[in-house]
């Protein structure tokens, strides 16, 4: 159990730091498009969770610590719905209603599509 907790913790730290670095980089380079960092990590995270889930279905002998460390820890730390929600509210508060609706649609449907695509890549 200690190894599982350590794997999830290490993955979570790595995912969180990558999300933090991505958001900071986007904000520094494109301050008007602050939401793109969250969008990028959420779509990439959705693709990766589908891909990893599919791979782990085909390779059930992968240690549970590695599976949990990557999916629960790393991807749980990398992706974030709360930041997505805050970004959307900020866009709405700034009167950018079409952009907020587009961002919401791309995040939700793009995430679903990316998860499906990642899972589909494992069906060879």
From TrEMBL:
Annotated localization:
Cell membrane
Chain segments annotated as coiled-coil in the UniProt record: none
**In its keyword annotation, does this UniProt entry include Amino-acid biosynthesis?**
no
Q: Which reaction does it catalyse?
A: fluoride(in) = fluoride(out)
Give the bilayer topology.
Answer: Multi-pass membrane protein
Known Pfam families for this protein? CRCB
Output one GO MF annotation.
fluoride channel activity
Tell me which UniProt keywords the record has, alphabetically: Cell inner membrane, Cell membrane, Ion channel, Ion transport, Membrane, Metal-binding, Sodium, Transmembrane, Transmembrane helix, Transport
Name one process (GO BP) from the record.
cellular detoxification of fluoride
Q: What's any one GO cellular component for it?
A: plasma membrane
Q: Where does Na(+) bind?
A: 76, 79
Q: What regulation of activity is recorded for this protein?
A: Na(+) is not transported, but it plays an essential structural role and its presence is essential for fluoride channel function.
Spans through the membrane: 35-56, 68-86, 98-119
Q: Which family does it belong to?
A: Belongs to the fluoride channel Fluc/FEX (TC 1.A.43) family.
* Primary role: Fluoride-specific ion channel. Important for reducing fluoride concentration in the cell, thus reducing its toxicity.
> Known NCBIfam families for this protein?
crcB, PRK14234.1
Q: What is this protein called?
A: Fluoride-specific ion channel FluC
Organism in which the protein naturally occurs: Pseudomonas urmiensis
